Amino acid sequence: METIFYKMISPTRAVRFALQGLVALLLVLACLLPAVKPVQAAIPTFSIVSVVTNSSVTIQTYNFPAGQEFTVRMGPFGTLAIGGVVVGTTNSGAGGSFSVTYSIPASLVGSAQIAIRMDSPAGYYAYNWFYNSTSGGTSGGTGYTGIPTFNILSVVQDDKVTIKTNNFPSGLDFTVRMGAYGTLGLGGIVVATTNSGSGGSFEATYAIPAALKGSYQIAIRMDSTAGHYAYNWFYNNTGSGTSGTGGLYTGIPTFSILSVVQDDKVTIKTNNFPAGLDFKVRMGPYGTQAIGGIEVATTNSGAGGSFEATYTIPDALKGSYQIAIRLESAAGYYAYNWFYNNTTTGGTSGTGGPAYTGFPTFSIVSVVRDDKVTVQTYNLPPSQDFKVRMGPYGSLGIGGIEVATINSGAGGAQSFTFTIPAALYGSYQIAVRMESSAGYFAYNWFYNNTTY
Fold it and tell me: 376-400 burial by CB neighbour count: b if 16+ within 10 A, else e?
């Protein structure tokens, strides 16, 4: 029962709630995954072990949370089994990896491919699909793991683009779309349908549609009905291997604070920035991540990677104790940080967020029914006041009853005990949440029964 802190844009509750959904959507796009559950550090998955045609399927789970009741559903291929036929209920027991067999429902007998899904009331889920043909360990696409991607090999301006895929699942039809740069190809013009064949790596060439001719940069996307997708972009100029590389950039752009001159300027150093993009630079009040902040400059990332830049603090923020700063490009890349508005050198007191890295978590250590709960934090950010709230199970503790305020002190790993409020006495499960005025938060839940 471990969860992750995130950085939010505002200490106000309404903005925090809105950003949670936005952060979830951005992670989905950034990681090319159908979904990410923030309630645990890793993601439960399962593979197909074997199939008996029109009779049963055996699966093998990985990284499953412990003590969860999972409802198992099957449905038509491409539906992810959402709203499918319930075929069983499985308790994950000790969690991790286990094997289980389910009967194929009568309504899906004769289907060539079948989707299968497992959901728990706590919000954990995983899904897969399989060929409805007797086999051992290969059906259902289980030889496929990871994320499909593709690179740009070459471009003929206003004519065609050639790509090379990597780690594609086999035997799926992918709809290929192109659209305006920065759209990720979502809702773009359909230019082809490509079957992935044996999967893995293959090359394909697609014609640039008339509506996009003359564009400087073009987004390209491939989607399958099974839910797999990948996207990239390219410069619309004739070239091979270099001018058309587009999204060969991987990873996340970040930057640190090198120095500050109070009410005058701040110097930053970037890390892992994509090349050749214009970034608008904004500053705003601390805690806003500078979203919608004052535009102070536009910086081109040049060769990308690491570079230094200095920006002037706008008049409206002079006198502020802490200031947020943000760099964002039209392509969707962004990074943000904050700094103390006092004269510093050497990247120490002015480092702001870079001194804190990683994803703090907290787990449940013990519970005394209707009395108290003890938690253990990990990688807690230092010197933060956290309000602690409890609420009904499934609420994530949002808007819950405030039970304590703690200071994280030196941060890192610490133990805290909180009193369960009377209004939640008798509850079977209770959500607990920690959130700071700086925008860090985490949540978890526990069974309201005495444990040691």
Answer: ebbbbbeebebbbbbbebebbbbeb
User: What domains can be seen in the chain, in order of their start residue?
Assistant: 45-141 (2.60.40), 149-240 (2.60.40.1930), 254-355 (2.60.40), 361-447 (2.60.40.1930)
pTM tops 0.85, yes or no: no
Distance CA 62, CA 145 (A): 12
CA neighbor of 414 nearest in space, from 359, 357, 360: 360
Angle made by CA atoms 59, 60, 61, in degrees to the nearest 5: 120
> For the CA atoms of the chain, what is the radius of gyration?
25
Q: Where are the alpha helices (DSSP H) in 5-163?
A: 13-31
Rounded distance between C-alpha atoms, residue 392 and residue 398, angstroms: 9
Q: Tell me the per-residue pLDDT of 42-64, one tens digit each, with 9 for 90 and over.
A: 467 787 777 888 899 888 887 78
b/e per residue 222-246 (b: at least 16 CB within 10 A): bbbebbbbbbbbbbbeebeeebbbb
Using CA atoms, how far apart are residues 452 and 434, in angstroms rounded to an integer? 22
Judge whether 300 and 321 are in contact, CB under 8 Å: no
Separation in Å, CA 315 to CA 91, 312, 319, 321, 374: 59, 9, 9, 14, 46
Helical H runs in 160-241? none
The length of the chain, given as a count of residues: 452
User: Cβ–Cβ contacts within 10 Å for residue 421, how many?
Assistant: 16
Amino acid identity, residue 259? S
Name, in order, each residue with C-beta under 8 angstroms of 359's C-beta and a sequence gap of 6 or more. 4, 5, 41, 379
**Can you tell me the distance from the alpha carbon of 86 to that of 71, in angstroms, rounded to the nearest whole number?**
7
Instruction: State the Cα–Cα distance between residues 32 and 185, nearest whole angstrom.
Output: 13
Give the 3-state secondary structure of residue 212.
helix
Q: What is the pLDDT of residues 242-273, one digit of tens each?
A: 333 233 344 567 787 888 899 999 999 887 78
Tens of pLDDT, residue by residue over 307-335, are 899 999 999 999 988 898 989 887 667 78
Contact 320, 306 (CB under 8 A): no
Could you identify the residue written with the tokens 């919000």? 123
Helices marked H in 203-275 — which ranges? none
- The CA-based angle 163-164-169, given to 5 degrees, is 120
Coil, strand or helix at 381? coil
* Residue 263 to residue 343: CA distance in whole angstroms: 9
DSSP letter, residue 241 = S
